[in-house]
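User: Predict the full complex structure for these chains.
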Amino acid sequence: MAGPAEAPGFLLSTVQKGVNWARTRSMFPASFGLACCAIEMMGTGAAHNDLARFGMEVFRASPRQADLMVVSGRVSQKMAPVLRQVYDQMPDPKWVISMGACASTGGMFNNYAIVQGVDQIVPVDIYVPGCPPGPQSLMHGILTLHDKIMKGEIASPIGHGTSR
Amino acid sequence: MSDTPNLVTGDLETPSIEPPAEVADVDAAAGRRRRALDLWMSGTEESAWLQGATAEGAQELLPAAEDPALAVQRGTVVTDDFVVEDTTDEDQRQIMNMGPQHPSTHGVLRLQLEVEGETIRRVKPIIGYLHTGMEKTGETLTWLQGPTNVTRMDYLSPLHNELAFSLAVEQLLDVAIPPRADAIRVLMTELNRVASHLLFLATFGLDIGALSMMIYGWRDREAVLGFFEKVTGLRMNHNYIRPGGVAADLPDGWEDDVEEILTIVPQGLAEYEELLNDNPIFIDRTQGVGVITPAECQAYGVTGPNARASGIDWDLRKVFPYSGVERYRFSVPLGRHGDTYDRYLVRVGEVKESLGIVRQVMETMPAGDYRSEDRKVTPPPRKRIDESMEALIHHFKIFTEGFKVPAGEVYQAVESARGELGVYIVSNGGAKPWRLHVRGPSFAHVQALPAMMTDSLVADVVATLASSDPVLGDVDR
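Assistant: Here is the predicted structure of the two-chain assembly.
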């Protein structure tokens, strides 16, 4: 018999694997560019690097159609509430990649204007280092996220977004 | 008037909103009016008179007849634009917000549009969503670290930022730059202009619906970025041009890479011109859209390709040449109509001229040092550090304390891919700038957006915005 929630039975765990696979294969990023990193993010989606290989070429204009938010660049104090609102508008399950030094830690701008790490506002799954990270770095981050989702390390159950 | 101060209404004589004492005497009525209605500052710790505003300022535009001076400033007084017959009355107007999260705002620009049906009646650009405090950060970095900071301002033409900063510092220092360093600077900045304009083509195409253009522009830009990575180590934000010269010499075989760029990019450009120039859809969406007149360009401080598309023959490389760019032959493409189509054509023309400059630089690249041999700004050679204790100390001091720059102030402008990019520096004789200010071309272009957009159609907003090519890092810093 299937045990409690932490030990699902054969059937449910198999379904979960299928669901995870489906989530990684059609992960739509929100088109949410902030600064320099946004240029590299768009470059990742363009011809030379071709994010379409991972089923991710569709940058959704509306956050309500997106699964993944790539925080690409420095987040100013004025932008922070907007960013949080975009995150809240995304439907569960959702993931966040913090791209570059500024989004991850504030980078070289340790001053009055910049949020010192976007993880103060939204929960971050993957940090991508670099200033700006090249397309290969971003793709590595995305593939790592796919890996973690496939392994169930960040299963992202419904409704986790505000409490994790 | 109700007694709830959290609502902003059109009632200008609200007694509950008191201006602060220090500005009350200027023009009390006008001051109170603006404070009640305009965007002043964010933050909840402000006194009661600001409570009427939300964290991002009052969510409305000023009443149209409110302030003639502000109307001029916001570009609502225009003479040339496409005017739709005024058939609806005032209460059919509505406010639309565009941005800051919008796929075609080129970053985090926010526009408040007052629309009347399909017609834009007024536009208010709201900036500051990318304010990074870079000018303040610049005061905490030494002169040699400065380019690391300024290169992140206009992140599509980073080398122009570095060049403007370095030229300004060199003016204060009064050091001589070797001819090879000058030639490398011209080579790299012109290639940067090519990369930036290719990205303009990509995003412009993306915004007006020519999606294949986006893929093409990015493809060709990669050729230039590959060369940048080889020379500077990074694809963007290079920190390559520094006070005293450049960070490293060009790598072996650089001529082959440049030759490849000079082959790939013109081929691509020919394709794009074939694709777009006579394309009826493209022409319909761009010709006569977002017109700005030469007089308006001068009034708003519009420079660069946007001003040249209106027919203003003004290129800093010609009128105030720097880094020996006057040694190379090139012409300045000019438009005639100042519309979106001409802004596209001028940029395509500039790519060709820049490639011409690059070829001339490649053919006449002088030999010699790639940085000044003035020991005030340049550390001793690596070999000397092994031999001499003094050389080691010298090297250490330059990279920790930094070199000192004589007191004074200087303004140095270069022609970036967007227009006049100026750096104003005040030095008090120390190892860091006392004040650093940057005059960004995109800032002026964003302030000219109302002049371009007023009385045009909603569908033209994106085309106009994309064609003026603002970079929000350059606007906000």
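The two ends of chain A are 30 Å apart (CA to CA).
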